[in-house]
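Holo prediction — fe (iii) ion.
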Amino acid sequence: MSSRADLHTHSTFSDGLLTPTQLIDLAYRRGVRVMALTDHDTTEGLPEALTAAAGHPDLTLIPGIEMSTDVPGSEVHILGHFIDWRDEDFQRQLVNLRESRLGRARRMVEKLAELGKPVPWERVHSLAGEGAVGRPHIARALVEAGHVATVNEAFDLYLSRNGPAYVERERLTPTEVVETLTAVGGLPTLAHPRELDHLEDLLAQLKPAGLVGMEAYYQDYSRNDVQRLRALADSCELIPLGGSDFHGMGGPQQREPGDIPLPDEPVERLLALARERGVLERT
Ligand code: AMP
Ligand code: ZN
Ligand code: FE
Ligand code: FE
């Protein structure tokens, strides 16, 4: 079932393969009318996205971001919708995060060389272009170098959290990210929570910091997953949201923009909250 809304997508400004314009045109053709661009640790794609969205008067484009955070043993990603991306302190923080991504990517490339799977750093850098560099860029360089057949295999063999080439990077805690996003008027949502340990505890910690939503509709989440996560969101008074997390990279878990069963009702709740907080005009 497809949805009118997709609140989680990536462009070439982070690790997606489509430009914001291509992404928005594709989503629009597929029937999406409320969409968020949520690149990793960058809002640099938003000016282009807003221009592209202006070409579709019945499309609401929500300025967003996805920020990675670290907890012992796993990663927690937080989306921020309706952020004031022009805020200078916020932008300075994002520049720092992107610089730490660069250093970490370099160390991962060094580790790969030690493992006998060299990839040219210049190639990783040029695949990332002006955008926030991430593991998917290294994965593509590994495919190009012939060390693996697919991006997924690159993650399975080398780049996943427990993989031999994985390197941690400096990250904020989930609470710090929720507070940072809230400080710039953003509405924070916990991303893809299905595999997170101690989810109830995390929500209890993040809710007072300003968390407003949690993804319950995502990629291959089953009806059971959705039901469980919806019930949890309800009990924590969080809006059950979601998106495709479309990167344009293919692979078994990819969903096309809008290709998730996110109903209109929670999307309307998010828009109503944005209106109440006076941030809806950022669309
Ligand atoms: P990074 O931000 O550098 O830590 O990379 C995280 C990104 O890598 C995620 O947003 C996904 O796009 C991608 N990713 C993570 N795990 C996998 C996987 N197993 N297969 C393919 N892509 C993945
Ligand atoms: Zn990504
Ligand atoms: Fe994520
Ligand atoms: Fe994502």
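READOUT: Residues 108 and 165 are 5 Å apart (CA to CA).
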